[in-house]
Amino acid sequence: MTALPCPPEHWPAFSRRLDALLALPAEQRADALQALPAEEAVLRPWLAAVLAQQADALADHYLSTPRWAPAADEAPVHRTGQRIGPWQLLRELGHGGMGVVWLAERADGAYARQVALKLPHLHLLENLNAAGVRARFARERDILAGLAHPHIARFYDAGVTDAAGPDGEAAAGQPWLALEAVEGLPITTWCQQRALPLDARLALFDQVADAVAHAHGRLVAHRDLKPANVLVTADGQVKLLDFGIAKLLQAGDGGDPTANADSTALTRALGVLATPRYAAPEQLAGGPVSVATDVYALGLMLFELLTDQPAFGADTPGRHRETTRDEPPQPSRVAATPALRRALAGDLDAIVAQALQPAPEARYPSVAALADDLRRHRRHLPLRARRLSTGQRLARYVRRHRLPVALGSALALVLVVGVAGVAWQAHEARAQARRAEAVKDFLLGVFSAADPRVAGGKPDGQTTAKTLLDRSAARIDAQFAHDPDLRIELLRTAADIYRELGEDAAYEALQQRQLAVVLQHHGPLHPNVLEGQLEAAMRAYGRGDQDECRRLLAVADEGLRRAGRERDPLRAHWWTTRGICLRDQPDQADARLQALQRGAALSAEVEAGGRGHVTALAELATEHSTQGRQAEAIATNRQAIAMAQALPQRNEAELQTLYGNLGLALQQSGDLAAAAAAYGQAADIAERTSGAGFPVAWLPRAKHARTLHLAGQRAEAQPLFERLLAQIGDRTDLPDANVVREDAGERLAAEGRAAQGLPLLLQAQAAYSRTAQYDFDQRRVQRHIGDALARLGRHEEALATLRSAMAAFEAADPPGRQPTAACRERLGRLLLDMGRPQEAQQHLQRVVDEAAVKTWSHVALAQAGLARAALARGALPKAQALSQQALATWDRLTGFRDVRMQAYLWRVRAAVLAAAGDTAAAQALRDRALAAARRTDAPDSPTVLQPGVVGL
Fold this sequence. Notes:
This is Serine/threonine-protein kinase. The chain is mostly helical. Helix content is 61%, strand content 5%.
């Protein structure tokens, strides 16, 4: 505990007088100190000592200039190449009153990362306040560890050097914090250099407010908010720096003045730990710090962003240190141009004025309230802030003419507001009644199409949703010609239903009709127009036109910026769509993941638990699955499903997609039972909502059938595939129909009916080749074709096909990915069947060596193949070890699998045991493999008819 600067009995009087002295300009404090009343003269030496320590701290340059530096003939305290704990210093980034910041990199080999390494000035650790500095530094470490926000510089690590190490290491006891190294410009500089328009500046400020509100939500106040601590990166994203003087909002001092002394000493003896130009009055006076302190600093920053000049300039150093003062300046009065003055007058003047109230309780109650008023201003909604300048003038007038104003104003206000309110309510009631009646008539007309007494109606309620839409959508324009907003809503709803039914032409027609009405009545920045651009981008992606997808995203990006929707569900949707539109570029995996993560994070902020949030999570889960992170994919999909099921109005089509995505992730993780259940739920939803014969129901049922087949349930899977193939017929224009063909063809080959499967695979390949969207599908189906050709004994054709597929996988994917391993293992197995064990061994060994996970099914297959190669060259002990290793890998299997693979491993092991003379054990394994094949394979499969054949 830090000692009080005076005897305890004098502490209350000392504290009050010190507050008064600190509120004065520096040049007036000496005279005021000498003019103390007689009863307080005893305080003079203690006050003088503290004021002497405060002299530097009260200057604006305190936090930008170190209070100590080594003499000219002394070595610098820190230097390039020096070790600070596990970090090596690269170059100095900056310094301030409390410490210095270096760019550093990890030097102990634990991982590779560059950070901003923050180090306190060593002289601060050697004086009487060293305990306070250490306490402040430790507090910053703990605070930063609890903050995680995209607009707050990330905290990585913290520590203190132990003992002086080898030459080049820092001295013992040097604390350090490793923070995210942010490349950027102060927010005011960024805006000035780019001459950003007003709305773009407000959008940046919204990011700042969001970050500060996040910190407040964790009971942390920043206490030094200023432009230098708010950097904007090259991509226009704010990063809030330096929580070094942050204070936990719950002090918990228990009222003990000596306990308060620690906090006071930390705040005063070491300097007013805020830049005075951006400090709140209570902060400079040593009063309690709260969220209102940061609201005030944000008000000053907002003033500077709006006007390109500080609210309190350097030429008036005393004015902003007063604890009471006149009204803050209005931004509109100091704006540089008439147009800017007009833009700032009114709302923005009122918002800044409320944020800059001298009394903390008169400001916005939270940063979120300040940000909300700014968003309301940008959306042309009424503010929650008082227009203080007008209100204050009215209050003064009322005080001068209290009685007549009270009577006259009350009567006038009651009349005006009452009449206006009644008139408005009556108008709204009439409008709502008209709308309700119109909607009722429309719905009656819609459902009359299902009445069997109406010509064309179907009996027994058999009319489908599509039929109802077809008969009713054409009536929307005429029936609601005088209510464009309701017409827009109905057209959009009908279009959405057509889209979910897979009726693309009808969807496009209604979408264009509703957008035309929107443009006519609301202009190009209406949310429906912006959302329509994002939907069009997604449809372009669905057609395989990624260039058009990205072009439409750029158009939507500009519209969102102009509309001021940077913190909006539409911007979250934009980020998600951007991630999707990058899926055709294998080298953009990091950019895809970042975009999808930003979409999910922003959705969680602006529409938590809403439909947009669900969609963002679903796409993020898909990316996790694509990049092989199945555990993350499963968890994210389940989170999305829980949200979707909790929505007031469940979207069955969305749930169908989510269950399908979950099924894929579970299948890739190897949990075939759970995967089949998830796919089955997706298929049931699709068939229940759209009918089994509709294209949207084909894909989930095909995946359900395939997963059942992988699990060995051929009897359950076979009729599902047969029904699907009958439903798709000769359709090749629908992507889902081609996926059905591929899944059915690949499974037919796997169960020993390659002659029936190959034509389906070739049809799917031809369809995939017509669009660039399906580049991965082309590689995958080519591998399946090679497998089918190999099973038919067409080895040379199979070899050429698999080599071509292998080249495509190598060009597009890292070598350690499972699809690449699967293709290489199949190529190696074919070479074994062709009697080329040396070539086979090279490929199979690469599978084992390069696989990112050593317990994949294809690693076990490769080990079995290596055993076959060793057996072919007479290396029996090696073959025995490898065949046993393959079975051990299968026992520890993770990820994708087909139960038929295990029978192959048994056949390989049986061949090795037979070569070693253990015929009984070999026959037992062959019998086990045959029994499995009879359950999982076709009756005429080679694995059933020729049980001695080793090949899969």
